Amino acid sequence: MHPHSHSSSDASAWGDFPNTVLTFERNPPLVIDLRAPVTAAHRDALIGLGLERSFGILTAQDPGGATQSPERNAMLAANLQRVLGAARMHYVTVDASSPDHSHSESSVAVSLSRDSAVALARQYDQLAIFWFDGRQFWIVPVTANVPPLSLPVSVPASLSP
C-alpha cells in the first residue's frame, strides 16, 4: 500500500520515509524492511549487535533534505561517526535506503534516549530520525510539529495491539 493512500494523513507527510530498508553492518548484513513488522528474529539480531533496548537511527547526510555530493555526504557521515567515537558511544553503521537502493544514506544506530537522538539529529540539520522502542520502529520528526509515525504504516487495524 502506498503511504499516500493510507487513511492517516500523518503518513503522507513523510513521503518515502516509511518505505525505507535498513541494512545493519555485520556479517551477514541484517536487513530490516520498515514496510513490514519487526520480527522476534530481528529483535534478537539487534540485541546481538549491542542494540538491546531502544535506539535511534540517524544520519548526517543530505542535511535539510537537500541532496549533497557523494564526497560531501561521505565527509558528513565520517564526522558523525567521529563525534560518536570521541564520546565513546556504541553505534552500528546502517545503510538506510529506498527499496530499490536508488537512494541511500549512510546512518548510525545509536543507543541514546529519544530526546538525545533527536537533539543530535538536529545538530546535523536532519528532518527526522528512525526510533526503535524495543518493539517497533517509528519516524520521529526533528523539527516539524507533527506526531511520530509508527511503522509499518500499512498494517491493517485488525493487527494492531
Write a brief structural summary.
The protein has helices at residues 9-13, 40-48, 70-86, 114-123; strands at 21-24, 30-33, 55-59, 91-97, 104-110, 128-132, 137-141, 149-150. It has 161 residues and is of the alpha+beta class.
List the helices and strands and how they pair.
Blueprint: H1 9-13, E1 21-24, E2 30-33, H2 40-48, E3 55-59, H3 70-86, E4 91-97, E5 104-110, H4 114-123, E6 128-132, E7 137-141, E8 149-150
- Poorly predicted parts: 1-9
Strand order in the sheet with the most strands: 2-1-4-5-3-6-7-8
Structure summary, number of beta strands: 8
Computed CA radius of gyration, to the nearest angstrom: 15 Å
Overall number of domains: 1
Distance between the first and last residues' Cα: 20 Å
User: Could you describe the largest sheet, including whether it forms a barrel?
Assistant: 8 strands, antiparallel
Tell me the quaternary state.
Answer: single chain
Fraction of residues in H or I helices: 25-40%
Beta-strand content: 15-25%
**If you average the pLDDT, what whole number results?**
89
Number of distinct helices: 4
Sheet/helix structural class: alpha+beta
What is the H/E order? HEEHEHEEHEEE
Principal-axes geometry comes out as globular
Task: Explain what this protein looks like in three dimensions.
By secondary structure, the chain is an alpha+beta fold. The protein has one domain (3-140). It contains 4 helices and 8 strands, in the order αββαβαββαβββ.
Defining traits:
161 residues; alpha+beta; eight-stranded antiparallel beta sheet; 24% strand; globular; disordered N terminus
